[in-house]
Design goal:
It is built from 6 helices and 7 strands, in the order αββαβαβαβαββα. By secondary structure, the chain is of the alpha/beta class.
């Protein structure tokens, strides 16, 4: 399921752990990762903190190395080492460069860099979703890969890879079209227009 240009992560043991956890909770992975060295992965719907653990299991199973954002204040001793090992990047929302600028700098500093983001608005019923993940991809000049957690079918769906249009509304129409096919944990809170 992986390709040479993808940033590699983990080993056979962590892959076994990831596959075992996914099987134990009754989930499976559908689709193939595209051969990208850099991209933003949008993961939705984000319904609880347990999504993080399922995401880590998928990451281990696919043997890829990803990065994710966390408030700089949670990167305290001990926790910092675990979060960094998993791919966490501390960001300071007070930075004059903003979060987008801080993350684009990370993209520019690495030959291989995949950032996983849960778009804001997918956890609670907020519409429209915030487009920070598109802003990061556009400024870093990388595509956005859509991954959905379908709770009805218990499938992690690796979806389409999108180039970000200058008009974010056009790209968001494609984003919503994909996520309308993904069943959230709480269907009543579905806000995919």
């Amino acid at each position: 399921m992986t390709h040479n240009s993808l940033p590699k992560g983990g080993n056979r043991f962590t892959a076994w752990i990831g596959c075992s956890v996914i099987k134990l909770v009754g989930w499976k992975i559908e689709g193939e990762l595209p051969p990208l060295s850099k991209c933003v992965i949008a993961v939705a719907p984000h319904t609880s903190n347990w999504d993080f653990f399922l995401g880590v299991a998928v990451l281990f199973a696919l043997k890829i190395k990803i990065k994710f954002l966390g408030k700089h204040s949670i990167f305290v001793p001990v926790v910092k080492h675990i979060l960094t090992w998993l791919g966490g990047i501390p960001v300071d929302r007070r930075s004059p460069h903003g979060i987008v600028g801080q993350v684009v700098e990370q993209f520019n500093q690495h030959d291989k860099f995949i950032l996983a983001v849960a778009p804001e608005g997918t956890r609670s019923a907020i519409y429209p979703w915030k487009t920070g993940f598109l802003a990061i991809a556009a400024k870093a000049e990388v595509p956005v890969l859509l991954i959905g957690f379908d709770f009805e079918k218990k499938i992690v769906v690796i979806g389409p890879c999108l180039q970000v249009e200058k008009n974010f509304d056009d790209t968001m129409r494609e984003v919503y079209a994909f996520y309308r096919t993904i069943q959230p944990k709480y269907p009543a809170k579905s806000i995919y227009k």
